[in-house]
């Protein structure tokens, strides 16, 4: 197996090159009610708008339970995902579940207890790597809303063509997703303590068939790509 870094793709990209992205914060307007954080994020021709409401006090008498992945954190996470047009279906419900799981995995223990955080996602256009775009936009909107996070999350999408020698493609478009055997989205949380930074997987999902070796190759490539994005963002903040 090999990762070909030299061969170009549509648009002149190398196999391990991200598409051009653009992020606008404070856009509001994709939901209703009080909005604390909002962002419009595009990756190539995939674009989403995300709004975050909260943390708001949970309704009186509402059941509370520890947030998944965070012992003792009593925060309810809700998500609404709206398609480009028409009514939401099973795919949007699946995306909602993934958004909730992602947010639960990155919240900081200092988040006010017995509160609700609501994430509203509007899909604006789609050309591959949709889930990664949604998760990255959600993370930015949470920060914009002042919701405390346990670290710095980064999500990436990987596609693997497994005919002959497997080829790994970072940030695949729809055409690549439709022709590859494995398409996966991996979200990492980078936590820095002192001068040491560690990364953990907070969410991983994949579609298609692949060997264990191919799946491990995709995971390793995703971690390397996420780490590069993390350091790039960190460098831009300094």
From TrEMBL:
Keywords: Exosome, Nucleus, rRNA processing. GO terms for molecular function: RNA binding. GO terms for cellular component: cytoplasmic exosome (RNase complex); nuclear exosome (RNase complex); nucleolus. GO terms for biological process: nuclear mRNA surveillance; poly(A)-dependent snoRNA 3'-end processing; rRNA catabolic process; rRNA processing; U4 snRNA 3'-end processing. InterPro entries: ExoRNase_PH_dom1, ExoRNase_PH_dom2_sf, PNPase/RNase_PH_dom_sf, Ribosomal_Su5_D2-typ_SF, RNase_PH. It is found in: Nucleus. PANTHER family: EXOSOME COMPLEX COMPONENT (PTHR11953), EXOSOME COMPLEX COMPONENT RRP46 (PTHR11953:SF1). Belongs to the RNase PH family. This is 3' exoribonuclease. The lineage of its organism: Eukaryota, Viridiplantae, Chlorophyta, Chloropicophyceae, Chloropicales.
């Amino acid at each position: 197996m090999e990762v070909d870094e030299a061969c170009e793709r549509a648009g002149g990209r190398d196999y391990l090159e991200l598409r051009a992205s653009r992020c606008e914060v404070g856009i509001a307007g994709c939901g209703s009610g009080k909005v604390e954080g909002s962002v419009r994020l595009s990756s190539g021709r995939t674009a989403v708008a995300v709004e975050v409401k909260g943390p708001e006090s949970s309704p009186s008498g509402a059941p509370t339970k520890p947030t998944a992945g965070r012992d003792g954190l009593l925060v309810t996470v809700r998500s609404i995902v709206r398609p480009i047009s028409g009514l939401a279906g099973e795919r949007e419900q699946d995306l909602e579940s993934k958004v909730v799981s992602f947010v639960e995995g990155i919240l900081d223990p200092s988040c006010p207890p017995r509160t609700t955080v609501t994430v509203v996602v509007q899909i604006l256009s789609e050309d591959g790597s949709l889930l990664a775009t949604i998760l990255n936009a959600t993370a930015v909107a949470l920060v914009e809303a002042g919701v405390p996070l346990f670290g710095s999350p980064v999500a990436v999408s990987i596609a693997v063509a497994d005919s002959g020698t497997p080829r790994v493609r970072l940030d695949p478009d729809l055409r690549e997703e439709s022709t590859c055997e494995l398409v996966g989205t991996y979200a990492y949380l980078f936590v820095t303590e002192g001068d040491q930074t560690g990364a953990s997987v907070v969410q991983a999902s994949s579609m298609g068939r692949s060997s264990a070796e191919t799946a491990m190759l995709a995971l390793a490539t995703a971690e390397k790509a996420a780490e590069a994005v993390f350091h790039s963002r960190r460098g831009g903040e300094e």
